[in-house]
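Thread: quick sanity check before group meeting

JM: Hey all, I'm pulling together slides for Thursday and realized we never actually wrote out the predicted structure for the chain we discussed last week. Dropping the sequence here so it's in one place. If anyone has concerns about the input, flag it before I start.
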Amino acid sequence: MMSDTHRRAALSRFLKSCRARVTPADVGLPEPGRRRTPGLRREDVAALSGVSVTWYTWLEQGRDVRVSTEVLERVRSTLQLSSDEREYLFELAQNRPPPLQRGDVDEVTPSMLRMLHNLSLPAYITTMRWDVVAWNDMCARVLRDYSKWPEGERNALRILFASDQYKDDPGEYEAMARRLTSKLKVDYSQFPGDPALEVLVSEMSARYPIFARFWNDAEVKARSESESRVRHAELGLIRFDHSSYMPEGRPTLRVVIFAPYDAESAEKIEKLSRKLT
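JM (edit): ok, ran it. Output follows.
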């Protein structure tokens, strides 16, 4: 982990470099006369970002100053940073990733789709609103085929709570409900006030008392790793470990992968995989 001293030094270099590449014309200022250095002056950045020249100077010098998210966003806008540069700015200035912006949903890239479809294990990709946006053949054959739902109704939370999969085992259903509701709280906290998530929580609370109970208790669980049991029509019971991963640079997406829990389940998955090749 980078020390505070090195982080502030890196922030200083980064801000100076970004300021140097933005011309006055880029931000609607008149072109000045001859200058010894290119780009904007510190006074320009301060004025356009709504902060004092002294405060911005201290920030750029790497001094230990407190900086709010709102101010950082204004500096980001003035310096015309890309999304990757915005993330780097927040990591250096606040030692954390930037907050997700309302409405953000990352695009599933062709390379992500190739990775997904080359996996020999069931896997799918969701947004942080739990909408399933991609899945592979093994997922469709072993877990569920999301193409059977209209595009706007492929929400994993809604589908799992409504599924008949757990109806014969109340204990397993309760464990599933507890796990999913606890995980949803973490994703919900990343999108405060997001309309789609507000509708999802309101709908689930009204429809499923067990969801409402777990939503209102104190348990929160960020990690999504647990055992799942699937009763396959041809192969019988298959036990999985499943976990989720954030693709690099895609903070609003999750790749969920299911791996066989034991040798018997692995043999069944291997048998099914051979049929698909």
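AS: nice. DSSP finds twelve helices and five strands in the chain. The two ends are 44 Å apart (CA to CA).
JM: adding both to the slides.
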